[in-house]
What we know:
This protein is mainly α. The chain has seven helices and no strands.
Amino acid sequence: MALGEHLKKIRLARKLTQKDVASATGMTVTMVDSIEREDFSRAGAPFYARGFIKMYANFLGVDPQPFIDEYMQKFGQQKTLPDSSGFQTMVKSGTSQQTNQYDSSSQKISQSVPFIGHFMRTFLLFLKNCLIQSGTKLIKIRKSLISSLFRAGIYLKRSIRLILLLIGLGIIVVFVVSAITNWTRKGKNIWLYRLEKPRPLQVADDPPPPYFD
């Protein structure tokens, strides 16, 4: 079974569409369809075609190496970007150096276009994953912060209640100690009064006789 048909069969077994594969890998739907039809003219150089095949296979959860090996056996030595007949004629005839330089620059630009597109898709996919991960981390941090504040509020309420309870107990203890002290002092004075011996009555001396001149 050809690699494109094999990948398509696995995709259908997973009940996935070409759009699902494109959304997950960052490739276009056209590129996914081209891989399944083994039309790698849109992929550019073989390096990019192998990269697309690897992304496709990894998404399906299969080993990409057998597909890459099969691609290299079939298409590895072929140019995926077709050269124009005019360019071949000019190269063979060796017309003018300026024209050859222009066509060479055009070929480099045409080869770099798929690379730039693939790079931009890969970068955007990477940026999307980073944003998703950052959003997940922010949500976790926010939940953790809310949980910490809630726990701190509970501990603060308990601490305030404990402080008020201790203050109330302190006031009660002060009143009790003060009352006991006053009562002790009063009771001590009463007992001292009771324990005092009564003084004997003193007989008044007879007044001296009047002195008469």
